[in-house]
Amino acid sequence: MSKGPGNNPRFRQSRARNAGPAPKVQRDPAEIIGMRLNKYIAHSGICSRRQAGEYVKDGLVKVNDVLEINPAYQVQEGDVITFRGTVVQPEEELVYILLNKPSGVITTLSDEHGRKTVMDVLAGAVKQRIYPVGRLDRDTTGLLLLTNDGQLAKKLMHPSHEVPKVYEATLDKPVTPEDLAKITAGLTLEDGPVSVDWVNYLKPDQQEVVSMEIHLGRNRIVRRIFEHLGYQVVKLDRPYLAGLTKKDLPRSYFRYLTPQEITMLKHFVK
Predict the structure, then answer these.
(1) pTM given for the model
(2) Active-site residue, from 28, 65, 111, 137
């Protein structure tokens, strides 16, 4: 287990067998030569490859100021490609990182009070400009996804996709079975009704520790559920996020997702 961020100001990359390879910072120009036009458009961050093919057929793409409606056109050296009149180029390789966040680190891009953010602590370890998908409170630990795939991030955070998240909450006193039943049935907080997928004691003999699956993304939702019932959350951890777990990922470590995990994530947002 690594030390906290105060003693170790950099997150460490996991070399476990379940870690994916680090992507290249920039595309090799040789990779672009011969690339299909629809793939070129998709890699420019505009849309999916399938949608890019439709855009080409609809006459929205030009190559060297000449309309090109064949999605299979192979890009040549020196080609200038425009989409709706704007020059486009493939972005950096898309990056998908899973981080086991320690307590005391903020998930915003910057902090007006000068406190450490996830981006501060990842600086130097990851070359690409990435962003957190959603947020974890400063004192909440556990899984956080970071990426430069804006389309996937937006979809993962949208309530309609109901991306599952599991939290383990340690309370200031044992939670009664009656209160677990109330959570299961659904509560109404100040900002509306709240439902969970399931809630249980993590261990039968430790009723102050509760595990809960939820797909809502509202601010401090788990803490507010228990506060509503008269409890205070002492510790809060997220061990599961959209099919991803903390296996072989100690606190303050990060790893790149595997291609299979990336495909799985995209399945969640179809």
Answers:
(1) 0.73
(2) 137
